[in-house]
Every structure is written in structure tokens, then in C-alpha cells.
Design a protein that fits this description.
elongated, alpha+beta
């Protein structure tokens, strides 16, 4: 009985940990809430009469990340983007020169800025990856960091404005009146999104469970479309999360009381036997 109550305490504690993380990130751009999944621990006795075995408690089976769309909020910032639909923005490593191998991360957080080199980067300085836009407006080739300086004659001051269409194509307006396409935002999709590993800041990294990313342009083969001047908020429903927290706290307190009662019964039995 003590072991069974202990598994209940541990399961409820894990649930509270997941819920607390959801609450803490309820204002984090691009964050996706998680839910702890539990399973019962079956009886281990083979001698008991069929149908009379008592279970052995609960076990945390998995922590699943929701892929539900978060709310969209207009910011009017030209480099802010949100994905309406499936896919993840792809980011390289900050400080790694173009052409060298990069360790990629993936996110729905589209709060972007320009660094001193003219690269489009996130808050950590990681460059946004995109496809080159070749002759005729076709998108293709190997993904690379999107750099506005490279299409502005090497001088970032020549950039007067940026427009991003629903397909993620980034068009730069130059001081001389010309418009030049700087690249197209690359979106990553995965065979198993729940297999992605969280590395903080609403960023994810691929694992063997997620499978490798499939890189595509936006609005193509099932990927979502890009919205400019918009950010996707956390898909955390505070009311639902708080209700879940109350349930988890009740489960924790109930199992803790049962554990204490079982411990007192065991102590009382031992004292009785020793008299």
C-alpha cells in the first residue's frame, strides 16, 4: 500500500511540474503547452484469483506537447511573423559563418530583428534560415541564413522597408526605389512533432523519435502560410490549466495523506509485534 501511494504522489508531482511550466510560459511567444499522460501499474501477483488483483499504482507514461494553434496578435512590426497552420521556423547557430555546418533549432516564435551584419535573427541572435529566390521568383536550393545586406549592395542603410508575403518570400525595398527578393522563409515539418526535444525559449531540436525535418517553403504541401506583423501567442488556456492544477493538487494531497496513514499503520503494527 505504501508503494502504491508513493507512485500516486510521484505521478501527481510530475503533473504539477508540467502544469507549472505551462503557467510560467503562458506569455511566451510560440510556446506550446504540454500534458502529462499516465497509466496504471498492473498487479504483479500470478497466484491471485482472476479478477481479484489490485493494481500497484500509477506511472507517468509520457508528456505530450500540444500542436494546437496559438492566438495571433498583431504587432505591426515588419519582421514579426507567425505561421498560420503547420510547420516550424528554422534557425541556425548564432555566430557560425555562412557555409559551415549549423545545429538547427525549430520554433513557432517569430519575433525577429536584424543584427549588425544584416541577418534576420531571433532574440538569441540565431539566424532565420530560408531558401534562395532564383530567377523568375522560383524558390529552391539549399537553406541558408536570410541576409538583407547581401541584396542591399552591402549597405544595410539602403534598406527602406521589408514585405513578407503568405509564401514567406521576403522582399526588400531599397533607397533607389528597386525591390529585391532576399529569400523565402523555410518551414520544417516532422513525422512525429511530439518527438521534438525542448531546449528552452520555445525552441525545439530534432531527435530520433521526431525524425529528420522536411524543409519546404510556406503554403506548400500542407505547410502553413506566413503572416507578417503578427506573433503567435502561447496556446495556454489559463482557466483550463488552473482547473487541472486544482485536480493535480487534490490527487497529490490525497495520496500524501494515504501514504502517511499507511506509514502510521505499519509503525503501529511493528510496535504491537515488539511488545
Amino acid at each position: 500500500m505504501i508503494k502504491t501511494s508513493l507512485t500516486g504522489v510521484m505521478a501527481a508531482s510530475r503533473d504539477l511540474s508540467v502544469i507549472s511550466n505551462n503557467l510560467a510560459n503562458s506569455m511566451t511567444t510560440g510556446f506550446k503547452r504540454s500534458t502529462a499522460q499516465f497509466t496504471d501499474i498492473g498487479a504483479s501477483s500470478v497466484a491471485a484469483r482472476e479478477g481479484s488483483q489490485a493494481g500497484n499504482g500509477a506511472l507517468t507514461q509520457d508528456v505530450r506537447r500540444s500542436t494546437e494553434q496559438g492566438p495571433l496578435t498583431a504587432t505591426d512590426a515588419k519582421l514579426d511573423v507567425a505561421i498560420l497552420g503547420s510547420g516550424y521556423l528554422t534557425f541556425g547557430e548564432a555566430g557560425v559563418p555562412t557555409g559551415q555546418d549549423m545545429s538547427m533549432t525549430y520554433s513557432r516564435a517569430g519575433k525577429l530583428t536584424l543584427n549588425k551584419s544584416g541577418q534576420v535573427v531571433d532574440s538569441s541572435g540565431a539566424p532565420l534560415m530560408g531558401f534562395p529566390v532564383i530567377t523568375g521568383g522560383m524558390v529552391g536550393g539549399q537553406i541558408q541564413p536570410i541576409n538583407l545586406t547581401s541584396v542591399a549592395g552591402g549597405n544595410l542603410a539602403n534598406v527602406q522597408g521589408v514585405e513578407i508575403d503568405s509564401k514567406g518570400v521576403m522582399t526588400v525595398q531599397l533607397a533607389n526605389g528597386r525591390s529585391v527578393k532576399a529569400g523565402a522563409v523555410a518551414l520544417a515539418t516532422f513525422r512525429n512533432e511530439n518527438g521534438l526535444k525542448s531546449v528552452g525559449g520555445a525552441k525545439l531540436r530534432e531527435t530520433d523519435a521526431s525524425g529528420p525535418p522536411e524543409m519546404q517553403a510556406a503554403s506548400r504541401n500542407g505547410t502553413g502560410e506566413i503572416k507578417q506583423g503578427v506573433l503567435e501567442g502561447a496556446n495556454v488556456d489559463l482557466t483550463a490549466v488552473l482547473m487541472r492544477m486544482v485536480q493535480a493538487q487534490q490527487a497529490y494531497n490525497g495520496n500524501a495523506r494515504a501514504l502517511q496513514t499507511n506509514s502510521e499503520m505499519l509503525r503501529s503494527s511493528i510496535e504491537t509485534l515488539l511488545r
